Amino acid sequence: MLLTMTTTRNPATDLGFLLHKHPEKAQSLTLSAGTAHVFYPEAADERCTVSLLVEIDPVDLVRGGGTSLTQYVNDRPYAGGSYLAVALRAAFTTALAGRCANRPELVDERFPLEIRVPSLTARGGAEVVHKLFEPLGWQVEAKVVPLDPEFPQWGDSRYVDLRLTGTQRVVDALRHLYVLLPALDGDKHYWIGQDEADKLVRVGEGWLAGHPERDLITNRYLERRRPIVSYALAQLAEADDVPAEAEARVTEQPDRPEPLAVQRQGSVLAALRAAGARRVLDLGCGGGALLRVLQKEPSFTEIVGVDVSASALDIAEKRLKDKSRITLKQSALTYADPSLAGYDAAVLMEVIEHVDEERLPALEHAVFGVAAPRTVLVTTPNAEYNRHFEFLEEGRFRHADHRFEWTREQFRTWAEGVAARRGYDVRHLPVGQESQESGPPTQMAVFTSRKGAVA
């Protein structure tokens, strides 16, 4: 199995810093059923290519189990799939984590990239390959490999010669491959459990939740194991990227069995309408799920989506059909930005729990002190409700990136402290079907500026 990644960004050899693999050295890594080799066929300032070559040992492969026939007759050593994804993780662990100690500024830089996998398992053919990669900004060339060129009447195989071109962060390119190669294969060589679902959510952060083929990718990646798939999809829904076709229900206390993310959007929309907001900030907008709801509301004359992730903003831009009233801006919510001042309302929907608690005072200053909109809406998970999620282990957070999850009392204490310090009144509203003992799954605080109320 072979995978190559090429860049023409000058100096192209900076690719070696990001991948933590020196262009002048060849390296080998031992896998569970073979060996992976990393080397550079070309390394110059104008063009640099890194190759990942995976050799599967047939004897080790037989030890992995299977039927009496499939142990010996299979495509695992020859076609890209789950083994190639595992090799990718083993070879580029630090790069997949988005770390580059020597040149940290390179991590967020977008490189012109060309990726080639000459033999890739693609159940569903080239059409599925296009459906999975193109929404992520890749130009896709997928040539179907015939079963036998000498006998065209036999038809096509399920393998493609894949070439991807695009301008992406290297970490995003690696994460796309790590998830989508086994998803195209649809068959993994190791046990699938909840840990694998958590891994999918972590690696897919910022792009998978908003992918139009999210369900297909999740089902294939997790081998259609229904409980694990349901758990992963619930985790992704908590990232607030629900299908665009799902309409937000406009009520502060939804009681229909709709996805929690949809109910949350409806509650936010209702609160914004009640506040009479016209110019709205969506702080931590991610892939643009709430933006798509807000753009349907004609009373909002200006909408600004703000997020620290450039890749999330790219996804949001692609998914927004009407951008006439919407502006996207890259910024960290813990840094004061005077350009965000003067708006009627700001929404932080499932955002604060992604910020380290010691950074919350900085967020408070930036939002309530500098931007200081008339109304601020904050939603966050209710930790007391977590016991009702069937596949969420005790003590675990709903999302892999959550830094904390608060009880109702903890959230109320924080919100009332912010209101007192910043000149706001605050009221609390439940979102979702409430439990008598645990409260609602999501809690929302509505802050109203005392100055705005007087005006």
What keyword list fits this structure?
455 residues; 15 helices; alpha/beta; elongated
Could you give the order of strands across the largest sheet? 2-3-4-1-5-7-6
**Beta-strand segment tally:** 14
Element string (H = helix, E = strand): EHEEEHHHEHEEHHHHHEHEHEEHEHEEH
What distance lies between the first and last C-alpha atoms, to the nearest angstrom?
Answer: 68 Å
Q: Largest sheet, described in full?
A: 7 strands, antiparallel
Overall radius of gyration? 24 Å
Total number of helical segments?
15
Instruction: Name the beta content range.
Output: 15-25%
Describe the protein in words:
There is one protein chain. With 455 residues, the chain is α/β, with parallel strands linked by helices. It is built from 15 helices and 14 strands. It has helices at residues 15-19, 58-63, 82-91, 93-96, 126-133, 170-185, 194-203, 214-221, 226-237, 260-275, 289-294, 310-319, 360-371, 408-422, 450-454, and strands spanning 2-7, 27-31, 34-43, 48-56, 110-121, 139-146, 156-169, 279-283, 302-307, 326-330, 345-349, 375-381, 424-431, 442-449. A seven-stranded antiparallel beta sheet has the order 2-3-4-1-5-7-6. A seven-stranded mixed beta sheet has the order 10-9-8-11-12-14-13, with helices on both faces. The termini are far apart.
